[in-house]
């Protein structure tokens, strides 16, 4: 998955070149509401509270360079790539949700796979992270290095400006982090969840997630996140915190030629 601001981000192991994806499934807990921001979260974020971080026109938006490499369309079933193309450089690659058609002229599909949107409907109280340290601009190089090593999702040098990010340090080195990315309406996304492989199995991600969840609840926000369907370990972790499946759809990495 994209790890930094680069012309060719590397997709995660759960994404594949081509292949089928199951249709979107209904939230087992019941729909939130028709037309809710979650149904098209990238578009609602970039034309709403995070519009200052967006570039694009008409029915297409992208996060500005340096942020997460995501595209949002007013109509994701029929995306207007012509409107966003002037804002994308040749060789730039982006994640795009819910779109299934063939690649338009001037673009190519790098990888694709099924992704789950999960919403925290039944929050579970876990111990807070005693070592959680707020991350800031001085921590960007270490955050990029950790993201590059673990591939948690689209992550750029300015991603941490989108919300609160916290991490755990060992001997001055960042070994785990989690933070907030998209928001629209009452919904706030948790993203960038990753732990150095040498420090896994200690519950660091769970503690950081619990810390962020507590803060979101205090602000009256509804927490959600994205996870690849073929990552059962991460899904179990999120379920232990009260997240439940809201929808399953397709994510693609698409590159401008």
Q: Explain this structure to me?
A:
By secondary structure, the protein is an alpha+beta fold. The protein has a domain at 120-249: Aminopeptidase (3-Layer(aba) Sandwich). The protein is built from five helices and eleven strands, in the order αβββαβββαβββαβαβ. It has an eleven-stranded mixed beta sheet with strand order 1-2-3-4-11-5-10-9-8-7-6, sandwiched between helices. The longest helix is centred in the last third of the chain and has 15 residues, at 204-218. It is globular and about 50 Å long.
Describe this protein with a few key phrases:
257 residues; alpha+beta; eleven-stranded mixed β-sheet; 5 helices
> Helices and strands: which structural class?
alpha+beta
CATH fold title of the domain at 120-249: Aminopeptidase
Give the beta-strand count: 11
User: Ranges with pLDDT <50 over ≥5 residues?
Assistant: 1-9, 18-34
Largest sheet features: 11 strands, mixed
Q: Mean of the pLDDT scores?
A: 88
């Amino acid at each position: 998955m994209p790890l930094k601001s680069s012309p060719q981000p590397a997709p995660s192991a759960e994404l594949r070149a081509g292949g089928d994806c199951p249709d979107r499934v209904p939230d087992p807990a019941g729909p939130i509401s028709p037309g809710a921001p979650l149904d098209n979260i990238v578009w609602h974020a970039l034309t709403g509270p995070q519009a200052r971080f967006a570039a694009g026109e008409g029915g297409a938006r992208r996060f500005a360079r340096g942020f997460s490499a995501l595209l949002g369309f007013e109509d994701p079933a029929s995306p207007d790539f012509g409107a966003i193309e002037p804002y994308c450089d040749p060789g730039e690659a982006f994640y795009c949700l819910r779109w299934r058609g063939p690649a338009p002229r001037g673009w190519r599909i790098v990888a694709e796979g099924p992704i789950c949107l999960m919403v925290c409907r039944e929050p579970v109280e876990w111990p807070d992270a005693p070592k959680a340290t707020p991350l800031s601009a001085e921590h960007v190089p270490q955050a990029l290095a950790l993201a590059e090593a673990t591939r948690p999702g689209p992550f750029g040098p300015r991603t941490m400006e989108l919300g609160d990010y916290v991490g755990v340090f060992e001997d001055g080195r960042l070994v785990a982090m989690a933070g907030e990315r998209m928001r629209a309406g009452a919904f706030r996304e948790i993203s960038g969840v990753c732990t150095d492989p040498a420090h896994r199995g200690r519950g660091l991600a769970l503690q950081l997630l619990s810390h962020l969840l507590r803060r979101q609840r205090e602000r009256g926000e509804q927490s959600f996140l994205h996870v690849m369907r073929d990552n059962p370990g991460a899904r179990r972790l999120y379920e232990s915190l009260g997240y439940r499946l809201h929808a399953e759809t397709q994510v693609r990495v698409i590159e401008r030629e």
